[in-house]
Amino acid sequence: MPKHDTPLLDELEKGPWPSFVTDLKRQAEKKPECFDILGQLELSFRDKITHWKHGGIVGVFGYGGGIVGRYSDVPERFPGVAHFHTVRLNQPSSKFYSSAKLRDICDLWEKYGSGMTNMHGSTGDLVLLGTTTPNLEPLFYDLTHNLNQDLGGSGSNLRTPECCLGRARCEWGCYDTQDLCHSLTMHYQDEIHRPAFPYKFKFKFSGCPNDCVAAIARSDFAVIGTWRDDIRIDQAAVQGYIKGEFAPNAGAHSGKDWGKFDIKKEVLDLCPTNCMWMEGDALKIDNSECTRCMHCLNVMPRALRPGVKQGATICVGAKAPILDGAQFATMTIPFLEINKDTEYAEVIEVIEKIWDWWMEVGKNRERVGETIMRIGLPTFLKVMEVTPLPQHIKEPRSNPYVFWQEDEVEGGFERDVKEFRKRNAQ
């Protein structure tokens, strides 16, 4: 395939940072179709529009997801990318790979595809960029039979579940994110591979409120590790930070001298609910006001630890802009025990209660968060059998009319009459 002049893309090779353009040019020496990728992208830069057509329907036998169709709208100019499909692979929990597995995947992709990869996509999948329709079935056979590797999700289905490093490497993990992620991935194979939902649905699992996989911003079902008792305090370690014996933020900013640590300025005054104070040399916390922002724990990890009664908060309905713009997930279940002994039955119950409602009332291409927004949070909470909390209120009531359920009106009236008669009898 001929090389293409790419003056606009060439600009991206200038400067101190590595460039995907340089990588593509190097890869094109082995895989000439990469020259056409560069040519088409240059044309898109010049025309200021994409030259990929709508994905269309393409996949492997028995699966409705995992392959994203890619077709050029100028195939006569760039035949190497006339069809150039994307393959999503289900990544292991926390993306722990062996070097041997990565080498095998790359070798297979050099055999069947362009050799280009995306490590990783927004949902988490290991993404293989660019192959032809005839190569999909042999690639899939080798992946599943020889590498024991499955496809991820795409389309209106459960997308590939993703989790943080959790207890494998993080001291803040309040539940085993890796085991929950893997267990639900195996439990919901049909939902991952055979689209049946109104639109996409994403699980993300963060072991603590630091939320390192941005679950609360990017997933329909966010499981955020938390605790329901008091933060544990090591008062001797608190003094160690105050006296300069320990570096704050676990030494993360050791490259710059920030001066002497000031617990009032750097911890107490930054608490969003002002629930911390010093009494003499002792640090005090009003745990009933703590919102689990994690700031104090991150600054003084030797001194502060999560409580021992650990579990997770379930937040529902985050998404990027689709119909009604970006939105964060809504806290739905304040605390849920994450119990491996029950095979996570309590989590599965919440998931399927959401799905039953959403699949009945959701519109085509409507994320669950958009369904909640359209129908109303009070209705969703009633479906979930959750008692409304102050945290569920977005703003004070602006509608002066109060609408009661019929049973609430009748029941309340009867109670009032009985109470009135009882007082009069006395």
UniProtKB/TrEMBL annotation:
GO terms for molecular function: 4 iron, 4 sulfur cluster binding; dissimilatory sulfite reductase (NADH) activity; heme binding; metal ion binding; sulfite reductase (ferredoxin) activity; sulfite reductase activity. Residues 154-385 form the Nitrite/sulphite reductase 4Fe-4S domain. Pfam families: NIR_SIR (PF01077), NIR_SIR_ferr (PF03460). Its EC number is 1.8.99.5. GO terms for biological process: sulfate assimilation. Keywords: 4Fe-4S, Iron, Iron-sulfur, Metal-binding, Oxidoreductase. Residues 83-140 form the Nitrite/Sulfite reductase ferredoxin-like domain. It is an enzyme of class 1 (oxidoreductase). One of its GO terms (cellular component) is sulfite reductase complex (NADPH). This is Dissimilatory-type sulfite reductase subunit alpha. It comes from Thiovibrio frasassiensis.
